[in-house]
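Much of the work behind modern protein science is quiet bookkeeping, done one molecule at a time. The protein below has been through that process, and both of its lines are reproduced in full.


***
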Amino acid sequence: MAGGQFQVHPAALTALGGRFGTESQTLAGQVASFETTASDVGQAFGLLGACDGAASQYLQLFNSTSKALNQLTQVLDANNSRLQTSAATYQATDKAVSGNVNNVGKSV
């Protein structure tokens, strides 16, 4: 707040949204790599793992983790989109208000 008035800097919102988008893309690549390597358990648990359910528990945990990480990338993308929309809305509002102020000055 400056002088008791609320201020928004659309460029800062745009930049912040861009950071969310960048992090989402980075995370998506890392998640894909994780899914490729972590899903291939092969014989990691051996015969005992198949008997006591360790392999299936691991796969269940893997699937849950993978799902959560993919949802996180969607949340980051949504935040980016909302911040970009907010920035554009503030810019349009500033432009409209500025035009109205200029028109009032001309009509007086």
